TrEMBL record:
Species the sequence originates in: Cladophialophora psammophila CBS 110553
Coiled-coil annotated residue ranges, if any: none
Name this protein carries in UniProt: Class II aldolase/adducin N-terminal domain-containing protein
Biased composition (Polar residues): 1-18
Stored Pfam families: Aldolase_II (PF00596)
Domain named Class II aldolase/adducin N-terminal: residues: 73-255
Molecular function terms, GO-annotated: actin filament binding
InterPro entries: Aldolase-II_Adducin_sf, Aldolase_II/adducin_N, Aldolase_II/adducin_N_sf
Region feature Disordered, mapped onto this chain: 1-43
GO cellular component terms listed in the entry, alphabetical order: cytoskeleton
Length: 310
């Protein structure tokens, strides 16, 4: 009987890419975890060809200018994904990308331009002081975007990308001022990796408010901003986008589950800490976040074509 592709993939080498260090990927998959089935997932070495039986690796670049152009394209796709999913609310919402050429600056969407229309050439480059030093023809900067994201990028050198928007179920759940419960497998990706900012000071026009949000985020990958919305960060654009989309669905699922349970006079069943931690180890780290976003980006790329890269 012929060996299936899935079986072949599991039987192949389980070593992680040599150029994706433990700091950037938290050692995922970690070959030292002999008893961890996730460690048996196959990620290729750099000198191995990419085959259909091998998991893809995160692109790495020796030329920082080439990396910049690639990542700007991914950021433009990220906005299209947010737009299609209805994460825009008027002109609110922003995603930032730390510039690989000058890490003290970041790329962001121009204020007032539809997520569904953003192209790579529309993105604007902003420095630490909020000065627009490059980018597209519309040089309007959302002050709240600058206040929040500049504080995060300064406090978290490991963060390459940060996303915040006023998605429907995220802001509905954030009105509760509490963390999500771990009631589904997907929610476990945020186990011990989610914080809550339990105050609302209006639109973030002040530097200290942005710094408070960054402090509340801490070393986590996501934060629920009370009465406001969701915030996610990551070491790749893709992981950041996936965490946001997933957290939005987790909020939706909990709102539904809580309502259903209350209607029956009961409560939801929570996943125990041990199982939640194990699941987080499997699906909540940077590489699975990046990999999980692959279909989102491929679908959007197929839908919009090359125009997004203009």
């Amino acid at each position: 009987m012929a060996t299936s592709t899935a079986t072949m993939a599991i039987k192949l080498s389980n070593t992680a890419p040599e150029n994706q260090d433990a700091d950037s990927l938290q050692g995922y998959p970690n070959p030292s975890l002999q008893d961890d089935p996730v460690a048996k997932f196959n990620v290729p070495k750099d000198d191995e060809p990419l085959l259909t039986t091998r998991f893809p690796r995160i692109p790495r670049f020796s030329d920082k200018y080439e990396e910049r152009e690639y990542l700007k394209g991914r950021l433009a796709l990220a906005f299209r994904i947010f737009g299609k999913r209805g994460f825009d609310e008027g002109v609110a919402g922003h995603i930032t990308l730390r510039d690989p050429v000058n890490p003290n600056t970041f790329w962001v969407n121009p204020f007032g331009v539809s997520f569904n229309k953003i192209k790579k050439s529309d993105l604007i480059l902003v420095d630490e002081e909020g000065n627009m030093i490059g980018g597209g023809p519309c040089r309007l900067l959302n002050t709240a975007a600058y206040m929040i994201h500049s504080a995060i990028h300064k406090a978290r050198p490991d963060v390459m990308c940060a996303a915040h928007s006023h998605s429907l179920y995220g802001r509905a759940f954030c009105a509760l001022g509490r963390p999500i419960d771990f009631i589904t497998q997907d929610s476990c990706a945020f186990y011990n990796d989610l914080s809550v900012y339990r105050q609302f000071g209006g639109i973030v026009f002040a530097k200290d408010e942005g710094e408070k949000i960054a402090k509340a985020l801490g070393n986590k990958k996501a934060c629920l901003l009370q009465n406001h919305g969701l915030l996610t960060v990551g070491q790749t654009v893709e992981a950041t986008v996936f965490w946001f989309c997933s957290l939005e669905k987790c909020c939706h699922a909990q709102l539904l589950a809580d309502a259903a349970a209350a209607g029956r006079g009961g409560s939801t069943i929570k996943i125990n800490d041990e199982d939640a931690a194990y699941t987080a180890h499997s699906i909540g780290r940077p590489w699975p976040g990046w990999f999980s976003a692959k279909p989102l980006f491929e679908d959007m790329e197929a839908e919009v074509g090359d125009q997004v890269y203009q």
